[in-house]
Amino acid sequence: MTHLDTEIKILKSSVMSMWLMVVDQLEKAEKAITKKDKDLAKEIKSKEKRVDAYELKINMDCENILALFSPVAVDLRFVLASMKINYNLERIGDYAKSISDYTEEMSNHFDKKLYQAIGIPQMFALSFTMLNDAFRAFENDDPQLLRSIFQLDNDLDKLNDKADDIICEWIQVNPKDAKDALYLHSIVKKLERVGDQAKNIATEIIFHTEAKMLHHKKKKKILKELDHDQTTGEAPK
Amino acid sequence: MKENKKQKTEILTAVKSDFIAQSINLNLFYGDFHALKNINFEVQKNTVAALIGPSGCGKSTFLRLFNRMNDLIDNVKISGKVLLNGQDVYDKKLDVDELRKKVGMVFQKPNPFPKSIYENVAYGLRVNGINDKDYLDEKVKTSLVQAALWGEVKDNLKKSAFELSGGQQQRLCIARALAISPELVLMDEPASALDPISTAKIEELIYELKKDYTIIIVTHNMQQAGRVSDFTSFFYMGELVEAGTTKQMFTSPKDIKTQNYITGRFG
């Protein structure tokens, strides 16, 4: 193994640690809201600083590899993708913190039925599946494991769209608790953004493994590209 | 017969194109050793083409085809075509001295003549029968300016070339190659014996020179190929494995062998 290989292995391991830390933050954010656990919400806020510090460390590692090893081809793409994934993960960490902020602000008697009706539990579940699939794709350099993510992101978007109407109707009937409803609405928006970040991560993994820039492309086009690679049996570059 | 017809068509197409230097179905043997295998290659005018590959892959042999330097080696057999501006470099009627006036060459180690700075640059012109002092003065100055050396030597043109530093000597050799106004400049690892500052100057110079010249450069330095060239060709065991724009070759090479070489995993 070359020196560069070793550095890249360390970088990959750091990104995976950051990933697990961020998913843990999001899991705790869900737990804090369902159990109305404000102490847990505070814990998330304090751990957010660790996520930020990890982001800076990974950025510095990437900078060092670029400066000292001048990587090219697949190595260059890996470092560039890692830098962006690092940013995407940090944003997800921010969303977990925002959700915990809302949890702290919400009253203890917020309507659990509304929480269920607007699909927040499903949105959390979809977000975790997307992040988990992307994690396995990143770990194994296997873009085929990303296929589900683009469909799941559509599902998240649909839940997000539906939530607006449900919340509007609910506020009209329960104007006194409008504030709680608005906090839940904000949580929905944050989870929708988690899906977007997971999708961005997926396109970075495709960029690294397949040398294809599919950012801002439609789901159909991305899946077509993944199909093409599977049928041609192209070696990952 | 069919093959010949195909080859003729390819050559005609080549002549019409914008390529200044080309090889078509080029094979080269050193005795029984097949050193270059069916190489199809082309360079556009006013671009820099880098040839990369591990030692012994054939890139320097290939470079030397364009000024027929391989003629000096025994037992060399060549088939296929090497074209300079559409003209067959290996045409039996071609005057090799005339060819070498059109193709300048810069070697790995600076090789100035044991003469003054002025006479080194004027050498090629004098050999070609040009002795008009005003013309020579002008041409020496222009060539030294183009080689980014004029500022450093203009007051000492009579000084021996050997008194210059290694980097200056190499730029002097470049000035010498430019003095004959070549159509193509060949560079065989021109900065490999130089320190980083001199290397940077040579690289900057190559970048500037492509406005007026076409350059083919052999280099073992991947970053250098990335910095100075527009197109890169990867040679391996006598074959041209992959050629493309330098950006494409260094970000998303198509062949796994190219990738392994440029990322330092073999070679």
Can you give a write-up of this model?
The complex is a heterodimer of chains A (237) and B (267). Chain A is 84% helix and 0% strand. Chain A is mostly helical and 237 residues long. Chain A has a single domain, classed as Methane Monooxygenase Hydroxylase, Chain G, domain 1 (Up-down Bundle), CATH 1.20.58.220. The longest helix of chain A has 33 residues. Chain A starts with a helix and ends in a 5-residue tail after the last helix. About 2% of the residues of chain B have low confidence. Chain B is an alpha/beta fold and 267 residues long. In chain B, the strands form two sheets. In chain B, strands 6-7-8-3-9-10 form a six-stranded mixed beta sheet. A four-stranded antiparallel beta sheet of chain B has the order 2-1-4-5. Chain B has a single domain, classed as 3-Layer(aba) Sandwich (Rossmann fold). Chain B is globular and about 55 Å long. Chain B has eleven helices and ten strands. Classes of the chains: A mainly alpha (237), B alpha/beta (267). At the A-B interface, helix 3 of A face helix 9 and helix 11 of B.
Task: Give a quick summary of the entry.
Helices cover 84% and strands 0% of the residues of chain A. Chain A has 237 residues and is mainly α.
Helices and strands in order:
The complex is a heterodimer of chains A (237) and B (267).
Chain A: H1 3-34, H2 38-69, H3 73-105, H4 112-117, H5 120-140, H6 147-173, H7 178-210, H8 219-232
Chain B: H1 2-16, E1 19-30, E2 33-44, E3 48-52, H2 59-63, E4 76-84, E5 87-88, H3 96-102, E6 103-106, H4 117-127, H5 133-146, H6 150-153, H7 166-179, E7 184-188, H8 196-209, E8 214-218, H9 222-228, E9 231-236, E10 239-245, H10 246-251, H11 256-262
Parallel strand pairs in B: 3-8, 3-9, 6-7, 7-8
Antiparallel strand pairs in B: 1-2, 1-4, 4-5, 9-10
